[in-house]
Design goal:
Type I restriction modification DNA specificity domain-containing protein, single chain, DNA-binding, globular, Adenine-n6-DNA-methyltransferase TaqI, Chain A, domain 2, 8 helices, alpha+beta, three-stranded mixed β-sheet, Restrct_endonuc_typeI_TRD_sf, five-stranded mixed β-sheet
């Protein structure tokens, strides 16, 4: 591994530490109105995706599966699907679109432990192993801040214990959060944006190798 990549990885690791530290400090110290997530977001699971509809490309609607969340290009904004579906097929399977800016995460099985949270870059369907949270009033709660709220929550800790861990809508709705003033929200988001820019710059400078690039992205998001 050459010196440029080593320096780049060091910069990525330092930025990742800074990011996690900022998030932990922010959510520990914030003062504001207490809210239940169920009062400010719509909570809806994804839809079953029959095999005969899978593997299509270039159709009207994106259809994301859990594995799509592992792709570096979908970090943190989901824009690259392995599957698409036509409007007629969507009607046939009675699939409902999740709106752009919906925050998604795995809701069942070992994928919960990956702690991956993403945000939809467009209206899309998601499979039934995914939970979606859509902000009711974006003037009250910016969707990207909802993503940060979820990043501060351990999915593994809130999941139902069992042979197959799972997270249902009621668990999410009952999570209590503190909603600070808008000025504090945007100040925090601006700081996060700066750190994410640092991460993106470090990745672009050191990772010409596609596989290395993807693995590093997944390490820090």
């Amino acid at each position: 591994m050459d010196e440029v990549i080593e320096v780049g990885i060091s910069n990525i690791e330092q930025a990742d530490i800074l990011k996690k530290s900022l998030r932990a400090e922010h959510f520990k110290a914030i003062i504001g109105e207490k809210k239940l997530l169920g009062d400010i977001v719509y909570v809806r699971a994804g839809h079953g995706f029959p095999m005969k509809y899978q593997g299509q490309i270039g159709k009207e609607h994106y259809f994301f599966k859990v594995r799509d969340m592992n792709l570096g290009l979908n970090t943190p904004i989901m824009n690259v699907p392995d599957n698409t579906i036509s409007e007629q097929d969507r009607i046939d399977i009675k699939g409902k679109l999740h709106k752009k800016n919906t925050v998604i995460f795995p809701k069942v099985g070992a994928a919960i432990a990956t702690e991956k949270k993403r945000i939809l870059g467009t209206d899309a369907l998601v499979d039934n192993n995914i939970m979606g949270l859509t902000v009711k009033d974006e003037t009250l709660l910016p969707p990207i801040y909802l993503l940060e709220i979820m990043e501060a929550i351990s999915l593994s800790e809130i999941a139902n214990a069992g042979t197959v861990p799972s997270i249902n809508a009621q668990i999410i709705k009952n999570i209590q959060i503190t909603l600070p003033q808008k000025s504090l929200i945007y100040d925090y988001l601006n700081k996060m944006r700066f750190i994410n820019t640092m991460l993106a710059d470090a990745l672009s400078h050191c990772c010409s190798n596609k596989n290395l690039n993807n693995s590093l992205i997944n390490k820090v998001f």
